[in-house]
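Students often ask why we bother encoding 3D structure as a string. The short answer is that it lets us treat folding as translation between two languages. Here is a chain of 336 residues written in the first language.
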Amino acid sequence: MRKPLLSIAAVAAALTGCKMIAVATAPEISASAARTAQATQADALFWDRFHAGDYAAIPQVQEALQAAYLRDPGDVKTAAHIGWLHIWKLSERARMATVPASITDEASLSRKYFAQSIRLDPSDARLAGFYASATLAEAAIHRDAKQTRSGYYDMRAAIRAYPEFNLFTAGYVMSTAPRDSARFAEALRWQWENIEVCIGTRIDRADPDLKPYLHLATTTGPKRVCWNSAIAPHNFEGFFLNMGDMLVKSGDWRTAQILYRNATLSPDFSAWPYAQVLERRIVEAEANVAAFNALPPTGNDASGQGEPPADVAAGDHRLMIDTRFSCMGCHQSLRT
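And here it is in the second language, the structure alphabet:
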């Protein structure tokens, strides 16, 4: 009676071995040597609508990028931009009149395309940070503790690979943790470390004035991501808007006011669509301690494209990551 069972076990083991060998010997996907004209055109549309803050154009941009990807799945930029588009749609869902339950699938799709872009270019540590962010977002949606831990350690690895970039990415995505949690404390510490990695010295945390370090601004090398660029025309301003919000959430609203004012030091501040938001943040910092520790909004308010709507310009009483300018705070410009 045991022989059939042994035979089944032997067959199962053999099939498992065959699967492992077949998968291990399959050719790796490789990055394309050249980009197609279709991919270049899709990228141009992506950046044009992204920098304009045109959330309503996401379906049009997605169609263009997806068509280019299907023609050439080896294009790392196309894969990464699809991942970014899904993150944008999810992050700024408060722009939607009604947020559908299916919006949560954007996290999974983003993770899929960032995973693909990393397979094509494992040397780009920015992609690793985005992948870890999408992993954490997806894990939170599904309440998957194992995936949360996996995403957390992926994020730590991304920080080691490119601290100037991923210290912010990590801190931003973890800014939603309860303010008395170890995760939030770590997220805030990463923001301080991000400043210090960028300026090359320890900053006075009681008076974090960036004016003495503005001469360090650069558009080349790894520290270029610390400042404004063509990709993120208001990266500097957005960084201090977010970090100020995080300090307000922690209860240290007076130091937050100093951090907020750093954003005004940017030579591009006058072209920043969210300057009025920041100015209101400074005035309302103490009152926002409670607001930023309240439950996040469900996102049932609509907004248009381009310039922020009147109620946003008047001041949005939400932590930056929960707002309609979660991505646009760094990437949208009035000069587009």
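Translate back mentally: The CA atoms of residues 208 and 259 lie 7 Å apart. Keep this in mind for the problem set.
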